[in-house]
């Protein structure tokens, strides 16, 4: 199916707004947070207007309705990522929380001195610092897969790092800076050969690439609602049931217990064991609506549009004098995320000038300081696109870059 871009853009009201300076918005920052279709916005107001209540404890009709809608959202997420059971889907506040949950519980419980965790320098701080912290605490050792000059994980080096000491491989499905799509299925198979587990940071990959955790043999997967066209404050941790069952709880309190006595307490079954306290009720339900939107559009259409955009963006960006793109240039190995620098232009100045033309991009280290150190740069500009963007918007970006280059006396 070919994406009908006009009708897709009609679904996202914010894309048709003007900025305070009168410029039409060109939103190229979906990698930071994505915009919302009307169906998600409508769902949120429908809940608050008509049936908002607390979940699980409902002895009334409103409680029953939100509980069943939240569990239906869980089931939709289960199907979306190909998990075997709804108990394997834990609602968290986002990718960061999902990773910390496993680092702080599975990590503290199962890691011991001398165990090894395989990481790499392209990881977002969210999939880096929690492992660094728990490794220090447990006396475990971090090993880093080398990056190739074009920003991929060196698979031969990965193979060399794997050993019976390896307990976990933590890797992103798609780099939030380089756009690199990592070969997760292959990496999972190799990790399992030495008895290690694989934790996949799906923050950037799950909104853009189909995933099947069973077929790819992913042990843990994390992603955020706000990057998949849903609300912020909600996210998902997938864990294989047997692993989650062996893992102690993270937060303690209401909802996660089966019995509490003065001396001791017992934990609830999955998924409640990892969902202490009142969850982000509306957000969880609306995440289900966002997943419906993505599923109805379909990854074929999403990838087709993102492919067209990537091809055009790469071509146009490479025409700009002095512009260097980081990451692979082959379309099949990258997503529609483009980080770059322009000789002589400070990324912050460039981003400020682009903003004057209505172009929303990011600048900075994008929570990947080790990667920026590896690239020997302090910061970069990042344009991240998705299926609701157009080639006209890429032209607008290029025109704005020309405007900035003139202002900075580079042209
Ligand atoms: N991992 C990656 C690859 C990301 O891009 C992000 C968000 N920038 C995160 C993790 C963290 O996501 P969140 O802030 O939603 O927890």
TrEMBL record:
One of its GO terms (molecular function) is cysteine desulfurase activity. Its cofactor is pyridoxal 5'-phosphate. Residues 26-397 form the Aminotransferase class V domain. GO terms for biological process: cysteine metabolic process. Its EC number is 2.8.1.7. Keywords: Pyridoxal phosphate, Transferase. It catalyses: (sulfur carrier)-H + L-cysteine = (sulfur carrier)-SH + L-alanine. InterPro entries: Aminotrans_V_dom, Aminotrans_V_PyrdxlP_BS, Cys_dSase_SufS, Cysteine_dSase, PyrdxlP-dep_Trfase, PyrdxlP-dep_Trfase_major, PyrdxlP-dep_Trfase_small. It comes from the Bacteria. It is an enzyme of class 2 (transferase). Belongs to the class-V pyridoxal-phosphate-dependent aminotransferase family. Csd subfamily. Catalyzes the removal of elemental sulfur and selenium atoms from L-cysteine, L-cystine, L-selenocysteine, and L-selenocystine to produce L-alanine. This is Cysteine desulfurase. It comes from Gimesia fumaroli. The gene is csd_2.
């Amino acid at each position: 199916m070919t994406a009908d871009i006009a009708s897709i853009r009609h679904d996202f009201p914010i894309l048709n707004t003007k900025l305070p300076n009168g410029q039409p918005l060109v939103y190229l920052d979906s990698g930071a947070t994505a915009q919302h279709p009307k169906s998600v916005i409508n769902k949120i107001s429908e809940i608050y207007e008509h049936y908002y209540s607390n979940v699980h404890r409902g002895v009334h009709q409103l409680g029953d309705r939100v509980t069943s809608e939240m569990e239906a959202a869980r089931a939709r997420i289960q199907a979306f990522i190909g998990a075997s059971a709804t108990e394997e889907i834990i609602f968290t506040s986002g990718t960061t929380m999902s990773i910390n949950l496993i680092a702080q519980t599975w990590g503290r419980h199962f890691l011991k001195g001398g165990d090894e965790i395989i990481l790499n320098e392209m990881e977002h701080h969210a999939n880096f610092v929690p492992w660094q912290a728990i490794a220090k605490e447990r006396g475990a050792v971090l090993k880093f897969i080398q990056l190739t000059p074009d920003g991929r994980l060196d698979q031969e080096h990965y193979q060399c790092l794997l050993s019976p000491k390896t307990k976990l491989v933590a890797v992103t499905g798609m780099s939030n800076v380089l756009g690199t799509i990592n070969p997760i299925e292959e990496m999972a198979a190799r990790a399992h050969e030495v008895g290690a587990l694989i934790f996949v940071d799906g923050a950037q990959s799950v909104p853009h690439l189909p995933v099947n955790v069973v077929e790819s043999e992913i042990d843990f997967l994390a992603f955020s609602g706000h990057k998949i066209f849903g609300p912020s404050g909600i996210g998902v941790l997938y864990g294989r049931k047997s692993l989650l069952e062996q893992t102690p709880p993270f937060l303690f309190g209401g909802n996660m217990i089966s019995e509490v006595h003065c001396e001791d307490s017992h934990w609830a079954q999955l998924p409640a064991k990892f969902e202490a306290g009142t969850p982000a009720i509306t957000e969880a339900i609306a995440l289900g609506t966002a997943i419906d939107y993505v599923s109805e559009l379909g990854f074929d259409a999403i990838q087709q549009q993102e492919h067209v955009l990537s091809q055009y963006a790469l071509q146009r960006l490479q025409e700009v004098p002095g512009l260097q793109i980081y990451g692979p240039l082959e379309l099949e190995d990258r997503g529609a995320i483009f980080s770059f620098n322009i000789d002589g232009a400070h990324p912050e100045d460039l981003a400020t000038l682009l903003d004057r033309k209505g172009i929303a991009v990011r600048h900075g280290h994008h929570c990947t300081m080790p990667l920026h150190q590896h690239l020997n740069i302090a910061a970069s500009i990042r344009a991240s696109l998705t299926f609701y963007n157009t080639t006209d918007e890429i032209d607008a970006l290029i025109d704005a870059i020309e405007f900035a280059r003139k202002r900075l006396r580079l042209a």
